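call fold(seq) -> tokens
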Amino acid sequence: MTLAAKDKNTLENKLNMYIKKLKCWFDNNKFKLNLSKTKILNYAKDINYTIILDNKLIENVKTYKFLGVYLDHKLNYNMHISKVISKISKIMYMLKRVSKFLNTKSLILLYNSLILPHFIFSIEIWGTTFKYNINKLFYIKKKAIRIINKNIYKKEKGITKLTNTNIFYKNNNILKINDLIEYRTLIFMHKMCHGSMNNRVKEMFNLCSVGRNATSKLIKQAPHRTKKRYRHPVIYGTSLWNALQNSIRKYGEISFKRILRKVIISKY
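ret:
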């Protein structure tokens, strides 16, 4: 539903009218609208709207958790990144304690089952956040890798130094955070171009011109002038897909994942 108005009061009246119609549709189709979880999140300006439904005022918020992702009014995902770091930090404390008793292979299994899911959940969406947020995740992931690796120190000319984690990333087939974002985004684009996504998702790519053979055609790039606009998942995903080698794009989903990961890790 899209509404437009010249001023705030007119827009509020339209919103109140249409949300009542929406509530009637829910009631007629035997759905229940949970008013306690219904919020207003304004992405444009810091303006509060007065929307009343069933004599209850709908709360205006600046951050809201939707389907596991914390959305904020500036779409910088600061809250979501903080939550992810908080959860991973607690798991890392446990990982560090058990690292004294488990070998590296067992620690990698714990990492893949307890820590990695927090990184990859909806990373195609929030992974386009600002660089300073990605750096936070980079350092905490690097810390986890050092815990798993155990041999984190080396002596060079009598000086004790931290070992380079690139070797461990490569030997254990683990992606760095920036590469993980690229990897998951390209998998999403592969599914979209190969018809695995529903029509609602494909509508986001209405500028897409994949032709009959989706494996060989490029996607038309949407116009963007700023870095903020480039961070849009659709534009960023399109840019990555077009830059990918055609020989890789043509593979099926399973082979595509395997070969793409191999290409990324070969750069370490």
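The first helix runs from residue 8 to 28.
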